[in-house]
Amino acid sequence: MDLVVEGNELDSVGSRSAVDISLIIPLYNEAQNLEPIYREASSILKSSKYTYEMIFIDDGSIDGSADILNDISRSDPAVIALYFRRNFGKGTALSSGFKESRGKVIVTLDADLQDNPADIPMLVKGIESGYDLVSGWKFPRRDPLSKTVPSKIFNKVVGMATGLKLHDFNCGIKAYSRALINGVRIYGEQYRYIPVLAHSAGFRVTEIKVDHRPRINGKSKYGSERYMRGFMDFLTVLFITRYTKKPLHLFGPIGLALLLIGFIINAHLAVLWLGGHAIGHRPMLTLGILLMVIGGQFVSTGLICEMIVRSQQHEDDHYVARTPYRVVQEDSE
Q1: What is d(CA 129, CA 287) in angstroms, rounded to the nearest whole number?
Q2: What distance in Å separates the CA atoms of residue 97 and residue 22, rounded to the nearest whole number?
């Protein structure tokens, strides 16, 4: 990946001092919104009690966003600008921002002005109260039905499959503890499922209603293809959160079910054969044998995966703290 750091490039990541808040704003072709989102966010952060840095990641914009961002970063020492030479996607942009950040609390915000920076202090207070991830819940959501209806279905399905009940998994404005950012590995387009990965690793996750504004400038960068990518990422996350350490629990039941069905079919045909009936021309014989072969392959695959898992010295996927967690009063809802 080609990444260029400008603006405060003389201050290397290792030499920058820690701050209270790192605000990460990924963007792609948001030239009309850059200065307004910068003014709003910097005004909120300056008026707060926190020290802060603002990290903008230009994900290969071609509309002049890079030039505007360059001017902003050179005029404000609190702004760090990262530039990709081409579009790599929001997940990669967020990962680069996380690596660059030095805040005790990391807040993500979309650059389209639909998220309200005034909600940042409220999210940070949620982290200070003991949560590791505070996710925004766009309420009410000011988007067309073509976006809200699929989003509701998506949130319901993910909640039922993972056990984490959130109203809005994909909200752009979220706050994270430093422990979570250091403890959860994220790659590809899995940013949609960071709450699921965090919950699976034992981190405390909650959500707070946030202001959502209609888009005024620019247009959405996500088309219908995002549904297929999101579904593929969902299967990946579901697998790594449930079966990474026990793959036989996934492949085994499928294989045993196929073996059992194939055995029943073949046993029935064997009884017919013993009774004097010809079975060589029956398609059921082929089906029974095929099911048993495939079932054996599933079980074998699960056993091989178990051997690979046991032979590799993976790091634990849970976070071990050296200080006790603070007690958090759960919502009554």
Answers
A1: 59
A2: 9
What pLDDT digit, counting tens, does each position of 56-66 carry? 999 999 999 99
Strand order across the beta sheet in which 79-84 lies? 3-6, 79-84, 52-58, 19-27, 103-108, 174-177, 133-138, 205-210
The answer, as to whether pTM is greater than 0.70, is yes
Cα separations (Å) of 42 from 20, 209, 211? 14, 22, 18
Q: What CA–CA distance (Å, rounded) separates 104 from 179?
A: 9
Amino acid (one-letter) located at 18: A
Q: What is the DSSP letter of 133?
A: E
Q: In angstroms, rounded to a whole number, what is the distance separating the alpha carbons of residues 196 and 120?
A: 22
How many CB atoms lie under 10 A from the CB of residue 183? Answer: 21
Name residues whose C-beta falls within 8 Å of residue 184's C-beta, 6 or more positions apart in sequence: 194, 197, 198, 201, 203, 319
CA 238, 241, 242, 247 dihedral sign is positive
Closest CA to 93 of 42, 26, 17: 26
